[in-house]
């Protein structure tokens, strides 16, 4: 019997803090174990392009706080959780969080917290839901969250491109060109798609939005993502696409970790600002912990972490 050497099954220490291989540096999850709050991790088993749960973090068994987080700041969660645990050490090692698109998190909430990924199914009821302000208000109105919504940070859009910008993309109007292949968020469950469409309309009217989201989709030069904060940078690095519109923070993260990614700024008059907000889930198993997270997320300590990635603190408009 022949045995094939494999690096798939490794001690947890090597999986979490070892030097990443070329493949693991390109494929998600990109944090090399940092976004895992579990204290006892046991066997390390991970193959980034084949067997990997990039957007599920921590131990789902009996968490003391569970967070359903819109995925586009997955990279900020490890330092946020670490800072939160400094202030509330009773939660250390017992926080679970997910970072999938907000619309999919709602579907999971409607399913009682149950989610299936590949061959595995588990259930975690959320304590806090974090997404865009309008999405949070919508779920409050639907009875899935408890008022009030707590806004805490803002973000703007950018065009994510390969390092060096080989297609010489200068702005949103270039995205309609036939030779530019795009990764674009799916409007069905990725809320950012609607904000992108608003910016496309500002830059080139309905014709530009139609070109990007209909004409190019029909001819195959636009591909819709299911989870844009993972797929857009990955597809660019795999040369499947040339560009995609994302939140600026996502491009900055990719640049900070040394991936061959860059970005093209969108002028203020064409850009769209997101307001991030959160609320405690109705029937939250750990409502007090959820309230403590809401208090923390708008604190100077938390906002300083967001600012590393280009977010700005939310400031309420004067009445």
From TrEMBL:
Residues making up the signal peptide according to the UniProt record: none
Annotated organism of origin: Robbsia betulipollinis
Pfam (any one): SBP_bac_11
Cited InterPro entries: ModA/WtpA
Protein name, per record: Substrate-binding domain-containing protein
């Amino acid at each position: 019997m022949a045995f094939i050497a494999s690096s798939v099954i490794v001690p947890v220490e090597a999986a979490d803090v070892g030097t990443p291989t070329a493949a693991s540096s390109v494929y998600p999850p990109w944090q090399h174990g940092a976004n895992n709050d579990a204290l006892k991790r046991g066997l390390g088993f991970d193959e980034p392009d084949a067997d990997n749960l990039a957007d599920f973090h921590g131990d789902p068994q009996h968490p003391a706080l569970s967070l359903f987080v819109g995925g586009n700041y997955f990279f900020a969660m490890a330092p946020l959780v670490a800072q939160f645990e400094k202030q509330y050490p009773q939660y250390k090692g017992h926080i679970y969080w997910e970072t999938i698109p907000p619309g999919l998190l709602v579907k999971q909430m409607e399913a009682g917290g149950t989610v299936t990924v590949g061959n595995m199914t588990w259930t975690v009821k959320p304590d806090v839901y974090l997404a865009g302000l309008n999405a949070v208000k919508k779920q409050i109105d639907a009875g899935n969250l408890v008022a009030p919504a707590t806004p805490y940070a803002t973000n703007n859009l950018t065009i994510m491109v390969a390092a060096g910008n080989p297609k010489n993309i200068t702005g949103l109007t270039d995205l309609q060109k036939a030779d530019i292949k795009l990764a674009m968020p799916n409007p069905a469950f990725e809320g950012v798609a609607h904000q992108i469409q608003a910016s496309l309309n500002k830059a080139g009217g309905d014709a530009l939005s139609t070109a990007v989201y209909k004409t190019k989709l029909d001819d195959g030069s636009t591909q819709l993502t299911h989870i844009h904060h993972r797929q857009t940078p990955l597809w660019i690095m795999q040369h499947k696409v040339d560009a995609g519109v994302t939140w600026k923070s996502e491009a900055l993260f990719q640049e900070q970790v040394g991936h061959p990614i860059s970005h093209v700024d969108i002028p203020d008059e064409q850009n769209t600002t997101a307001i991030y907000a959160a609320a405690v889930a109705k029937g939250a198993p750990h409502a007090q912990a959820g309230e403590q997270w809401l208090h923390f997320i708008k604190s100077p300590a938390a906002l300083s972490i967001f600012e590393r990635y280009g977010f700005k603190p939310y400031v309420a408009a004067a009445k």
